[in-house]
Amino acid sequence: MLEPEGHEVMKTDLPGALSLEKPPHRRTLPPGRAVSSGMVAGGVALAASEVLAAVVPWTPSLVASVGQEVIDRVSPAIEDAAIAVFGTADKTALVIGVLGVSLALAGALGALAARRFWAAAVGFVAFGAVGVVAAMGTPGASWAGSSLTGAVAVAAGVAVLRRLVVASSRPGAPAAAPSGSSRLGRRRFVRLVATAAGVVVVAGTAGRGLVRRLASGSGPADVVLGAPTASLPLPGAATALDVEGLSPLFTPNRDFYRIDTALVVPRVELEDWRLRVTGMVDEPLELTFADLLELDQVEADITLSCVSNEVGGDLVGNARWQGVELSTLLDRAGVRAGATQTVGRSIDGWTGGFPTEAAYDGRGALVAVGMNGEPLPLDHGFPARLVVAGLYGYVSATKWLSEIELTTFEAFDGYWVPRGWSKSGPVKTQARIDVPRFGARVRAGDQPIAGVAWAPSRGISRVEVAVDDGPWEQAVLADALGVDAWRQWSSRWDATPGRHELRVRATDGDGRTQTADRSLPRPDGATGYHAVAVTVLDPV
Ligand SMILES: Nc1nc2c(c(=O)[nH]1)N[C@H]1C(S)=C(S)[C@@H](COP(=O)(O)O)O[C@H]1N2
Ligand SMILES: [Mo]
User: Fold this and answer.
1) Ligand 1, atom 15, residue with closest C-alpha
2) Ligand 2 centroid distance, CA of 83 (Å)
3) What is residue 185's predicted lDDT score, i.e. its pLDDT?
4) What is the value of pTM for the model shown?
5) CA 316, CA 486: separation in Å to the nearest integer?
6) Which residue's C-alpha comes closest to atom 8 of ligand 1?
7) Which of 162, 205, 403, 434 could be disulfide-bonded to 345 (CB atoms 3.0-4.6 Å)?
8) Residue nearest to ligand 1 atom 7, measured at CA
9) Shortest-distance atom of ligand 1 to CA 307
10) Residue 66 has pLDDT above 50, yes or no
11) Distance of CA 132 to CAs 125, 127, 152, 480, 532, Å?
């Protein structure tokens, strides 16, 4: 006959019993309950810190801080997958990863709590400490804010863990009430866990959303741009081609690719923002945003592309940038002889460096405050960023700009250089087929082939298309906005039923045709011809 639980309690009450053997009832919590208690407690801890971070502006998000730490530390190891990691969607994946690992660890602590509550509590404190240390590493973090968030998270987590473990423990367990009265029925436990999990998800999500919306700092809405006084290079009265599916001349801001290492967009109060010009200059400058806006503004159509863009990829966009010419700022500061490298530094510490010459050789090079007629969006570097035609973003296009430092190439390497990317990053001539799309099924007969080609700072002089092993045929070029911007092109094709491969190649303004050799983005940009395979349907 099975003994009722009450008898066991009686037995363990015998003197000496506890010290002599591990009584069976010390396996107090079923493992499933212990683990889920830990996970819920961990979830509550994270959600509490998210909500705090949302409501109190000077407290950081621990999840984001740990994620940022992962980005900053792990990125060199990820190497060729860098882009896969920093794409916008993959930032979400990273956050989910951080949450998953955190909850798994919290589950393990839950299992520990069933046996030694204090050890699990220490685990939670250690956990919080990791978050606090990560938060301290993020720009603008304060000890006070980081510690407060960590403390709140730990306190909330431990409190919930205690409640769940104690309430679930069988009588006689170390943390349990003396009788069976506080024992939680399976149903009630499940309900408690479900409720807590629901609260965690809602609070955490709301917290994260709030962090974004309430985050202290100015935004594009606080800025009114004046009219630019000049267009650089000469205004392009470009007429866009009318082909469905073709990239527009100007990529709308909301569609413009976003690449950066920032998990949370760095924000500043406009009044606090300063742009410094430092290093090898006669007279260091320090400008407020108002100072910057008072300088002559120009507008320039410049195609920006990412070194990680694959042939045919979409990490490229064209915009009409508005801002102050870089040379204007450098001249004011007075560049000293030998300052071969100009480094842009972001308020989050990111850096990119390029030849100082680029500010003076006639290409578009500016500190931009506007993008396609709007103040610079937060994602694209508000309140100001560098844009330099003909150089990949990783060496030139510093967003959330705080400092321009004049130095040498020997003295300094930008963020991506020690991570295996080339020190200099001139943009390689590329053409992309937008229409038809890869894998498209099109009707036989007259079909458009169209796309964009770019060789910023050199311009595009010719685009050719080939079908299968056929000859290269010249495409029609649309008007050029200017040498720094991409150029639309189109061609007609008498499509015959079956599978076909379409290829494209561009020739830049210097008469150099892009190379057919295929190479990967690392270390200085992908090469090769873009090709798309399409199926032409039999006429019915
Ligand atoms: N502060 C900061 N600026 C940055 C980066 C970054 O990680 N941090 N990434 C650079 C890279 S690699 C590219 S390709 C461009 C992309 O600019 P976009 O996001 O506006 O398209 O920003 C550049 N500027
Ligand atoms: Mo990039």
Assistant:
1) 393
2) 8
3) 75
4) 0.81
5) 10
6) 260
7) 403
8) 260
9) 14
10) yes
11) 10, 9, 11, 52, 49
